[in-house]
Design goal:
The complex is a heterodimer of chains A (184) and B (239).
Chain A: E1 13-19, H1 25-31, H2 36-43, E2 44-46, E3 60-66, E4 69-71, H3 72-84, E5 85-91, H4 93-97, H5 109-118, E6 134-139, E7 149-151, H6 158-169
Parallel strand pairs in A: 1-2, 1-3, 3-5, 5-7
Antiparallel strand pairs in A: 4-6
Chain B: E1 6-9, E2 12-15, H1 22-28, E3 52-55, E4 58-61, E5 72-74, H2 78-94, H3 109-116, E6 133-134, E7 140-143, H4 152-160, E8 166-169, E9 176-179, E10 206-208, H5 221-224, H6 227-238
Parallel strand pairs in B: 1-5
Antiparallel strand pairs in B: 1-2, 3-4, 3-5, 6-7, 7-10, 8-9
The chains are: A alpha/beta (184), B alpha+beta (239).
Chain lengths: 184, 239
């Protein structure tokens, strides 16, 4: 992979990241940009993100979201990022089309919960108010809020994420082509 | 063939033999026109519309339009590619196409065209239709979630195998692939692994069993090169 230094923006861009109904694989792949992380921290600072452990998002330039939307909490986090980020990037297959979690979509959630919890001796469907309610179907991000950019892949490679983000930070229209554009 | 038996495709002359379609002539010349429901051995179906080109300014399916001398054909234009991307996006949301879990990933023509046309997301609201899987046959699995109704298996079974195992039933969004036997199960039909119909599915709907990952993901046909380059190389090999 050719090392292309991005054009630095006039000030550090503020970036938030979140993992909704995903497996954190896309965040792991994000860390796969390896030593280029050092280039990145010259260009951006992180707001809400598993990297900073900040819980709520302030005004940001870029929001990067992994995973689809499978419960009420996911919806609230997504709304918060949409309200605070100038551009939102859907990162990975689950954010783009629901991915693996969306394969439950042909099942009835109520029946699933009953089957897993209530039908077992001594068990009950968990109803702790701390637990977010499940949605009847898992949805990709763009079916809930407007999404500006999409990086498909399960997960997208570190190179693809780097290419896309540096394009975005440098003010170029981001583009993924063969062999970086992958759905698997 | 006389010298004037050519038409212009995106500004380049393409020679053709009388009776060839625009798609056949372009393919023979190593120029790729995106397509999903076309197969050189079968009668054109003209249903996927991916091969839509502009012939003298009018939109036509390249697979069903005869090549004629002097035609001005436009194919690789931003406008047509935008329409093709839209068609692909509609195909993706109409079924359940989860590439990371699909054995066909990397060999799938639907996916390869989406790569080639830089489709980054399915854009439209997903149908997530409930569709069955038929694992009744000892050698072949049918996953109806991935069927794009191209009717290649229908034509292969009817025209080559002489069995008519498959048909498309229903209309509009209710259209679906059916298997011709009382139970509707592939295992109860006279379908065989050696049938042409077992080898023509462009997506991961009709899959041979027990060979799913014999070639690892990342080393498959369209992982190695884009579908357009692959088609051009295939034309070179044919000479």
């Amino acid at each position: 992979m050719r090392h292309v230094a991005p054009t630095p923006p006039r000030r550090k861009l503020r970036v938030a990241t979140a993992s909704l109904a995903g497996c954190f694989g896309c965040h792991m792949s994000f860390l796969d940009i390896d030593e280029r992380l050092l280039d990145l921290i010259d260009l951006v600072e992180f707001d809400r993100s598993p990297i900073t452990d900040i819980k709520h998002c302030g005004p940001c330039d870029i929001g990067i979201i992994e995973g689809g939307v499978c419960n009420a909490e996911n919806v609230h986090v997504l709304w918060e990022l949409r309200a605070n980020c100038k551009v939102l990037v859907a990162l990975g297959a689950c954010a783009v089309n629901g991915g693996l979690p969306a394969q439950r979509n042909h099942l009835d959630v109520g029946r699933c919960l009953t089957r897993v919890y209530r039908d077992r001796a001594g068990a009950a469907v968990p109803d702790d108010p701390e637990l977010p309610l499940l949605l009847d179907k898992v949805r990709p991000l763009n079916e809930v809020v407007r999404i500006d950019f999409f990086i498909p892949g399960c997960p997208p490679s570190g190179d693809a994420i780097w290419k896309y983000l540096t394009d975005l930070i440098s003010g170029r229209m981001p583009r993924l082509e063969h062999p970086m554009l992958h759905f698997d | 063939m006389s010298d004037d038996a050519t038409f212009m495709l995106d500004g380049r002359p393409i020679r053709f033999v009388a009776g060839q379609s625009i798609l056949e002539a372009a393919t023979a010349a190593g120029t790729f026109i995106p397509n999903l429901c076309h197969h050189p051995e079968f009668k054109p179906h003209g249903s996927c519309k991916l091969c839509t080109v502009k012939v003298n300014g009018r939109a036509s399916s390249a697979c069903t339009t005869r090549a004629r001398a002097g035609q001005e054909v436009a194919s690789d234009t931003p406008e047509l590619n935008r329409h093709r991307r839209t068609l692909l996006q509609m195909l993706f949301v109409e079924g359940n196409h989860f590439c990371p879990g699909c054995e066909k990933s990397g060999n799938c023509r639907l996916q390869a065209l989406a790569y080639d046309l830089e489709m980054l997301n399915p854009h439209y609201e997903h149908f997530y239709p409930p569709r069955p899987i038929d694992a009744s046959h000892p050698d072949v699995l049918i996953d109806f979630n991935r069927c794009i109704l191209c009717a290649l298996c229908v034509r292969a079974s009817r025209d080559v195998d002489g069995k008519s195992v498959f048909a498309l039933a229903g209309r509009g969004t209710a259209q679906h692939l059916v298997v011709d036997c009382p139970s509707g199960k592939l295992g109860d039909s006279d379908f065989a692994m050696t049938d042409k119909a077992a080898a023509v599915c462009p997506v991961g709907a009709i899959l041979p069993k027990r060979v799913g990952f014999s070639v690892p993901i990342g080393e498959r046909t369209f992982d190695v090169e884009p579908i357009s380059a692959h088609a051009a190389h295939a034309a070179e090999t044919r000479g």
